[in-house]
Amino acid sequence: xxxxxxxxxxxxxxxxxxxxxxxxxxxxxxxxxxxxxxxxxxxxxxxxxxxxxxxxxxxxxxxxxxxxxxxxxxxxxxxxxxxxxxxxxxxxxxxxxxxxxxxxxxxxxxxxxxxxxxxxxxxxxxxxxxxxxxxxxxxxxxxxxxxxxxxxxxxxxxxxxxxxxxxxxxxxxxxxxxxxxxxxxxxxxxxxxxxxxxxxxxxxxxxxxxxxxxxxxxxxxxxxxxxxxxxxxxxxxxxxxxxx
Length: 244
Known about the structure:
The chain has about 240 residues and is mainly beta. The chain has one helix at about 1-15; strands at about 40-45, 45-50, 55-70, 70-85, 95-105, 115-125, 135-145, 150-160, 165-175, 180-195, 200-210, 215-225, 230-240. It has a single domain, classed as Porin (Beta Barrel), CATH 2.40.160.40. Helix content is about 5%, strand content about 60%. Strands 1, 2, 3, 4, 5, 6, 7, 8, 9, 10, 11, 12 and 13 form a 13-stranded antiparallel sheet that branches. The chain is globular and about 50 Å long.
């Protein structure tokens, strides 16, 4: 609880300093799923990441969601990465591939009911191309709560990585008032892979809701991977459509 309060405090501080859809452009997520027979696509056509070791073009970053029954969706995600010169290895790679199931365990404010919404997501980490060999597994617990002035999404996750290391993560997102057409958003996240990398990150951005089925987003993420800085610029859109 102390950790959660500290994290939420950091998020509020970030949002306030900037006068400021855990979905896009964030690493964490919300306790909501696609409607039955609805396809939802989260797409980052072109993004950019810079670290001390590499400048990388990310094109595309994608998440496909399909609501196959009430309160449950199938999720497939991944991204293409293209290192830029003068990197020694400029081969393109496809990483972050995963296939999961996400379900709402308790209908709440995100489902137009009272109280917090609670969801879970679990699945298989898939091998990549030119990187991330092998399989892994993931689990995520999500709690979302909304007030008139903000919506908060809290995530707690565990993984067995493709290298067969244990990984724990915790993250929190704050969105501005839901009735704003353009709402400021922020995220803080901590990820620890035992025997691997420790990552601390913060992101600020905004989401422009055009319609209930279409929104655009942009965000800047600063991360410290084993205390080595990494900057990423993200922009994209989320759209949904139903199939009879």
